[in-house]
């Protein structure tokens, strides 16, 4: 099974692509916030909050893109109500992901390693989505998201080099 591909219909419209992506970004942000609330050390907590902020910026970009394409005005709250945030980037179920990874994230290098894994999977998933969608505008959105994930992955790599 191609994990994560089942989330996308082959004829998904551009708005659906954006909503799916927004939901996964929101899910990952929730993951980082949940783990941050349970971590007691200041550096890991600070990093997790930073990572949650990055996901928030990705969501803002997707919201702006959605507003530019959708004919009706919509608020962020309305958009959030249209999405399912029970998946993190890469297509993993949020609750299961929290359960499996929360106990392992007590130091900066572990957090960065997991974040890099997630971003690599998101990059892969967005590239696979871009090959699967029929609309060229949706394909461009997925390529753009993949490029953002690639840049985020490079940034995490730089952070890892500084941490070790």
What this model shows, in words?
With 164 residues, the protein is mostly helical. It has one domain: Ferritin (Up-down Bundle), CATH 1.20.1260. The chain is 74% helix and 2% strand. It has six helices and two strands. It has helices spanning 14-38, 42-69, 76-82, 94-101, 108-132, 136-163; strands at 87-88, 92-93. Strands 1-2 form a two-stranded antiparallel ribbon. The longest helix is centred in the middle third of the chain and has 28 residues, at 42-69. The termini are far apart. Residues 1-10 have low confidence and may be disordered.
Features:
2% strand, 164 residues, disordered N terminus, mainly alpha, Ferritin, two-stranded antiparallel sheet, 2 strands
Q: What is the count of structural domains?
A: 1
Largest sheet: 2 strands, antiparallel
Kindly, what is the distance between the CA atoms of the first and last residues, rounded to a whole number of angstroms?
36 Å
Strand content: under 5%
The CATH topology annotation reads as: Ferritin
Mean pLDDT comes to: 81
Structural class: mainly alpha
Secondary-structure element series = HHHEEHHH
Number of helices: 6
Secondary structure layout plus pairing:
Elements: H1 14-38, H2 42-69, H3 76-82, E1 87-88, E2 92-93, H4 94-101, H5 108-132, H6 136-163
Antiparallel strand pairs: 1-2
Helix pairs in contact: 1-2, 1-6, 2-5, 5-6
Task: Please outline what is shown here.
Helices cover 74% and strands 2% of the residues. With 164 residues, it is an all-alpha fold. The N terminus is likely disordered.
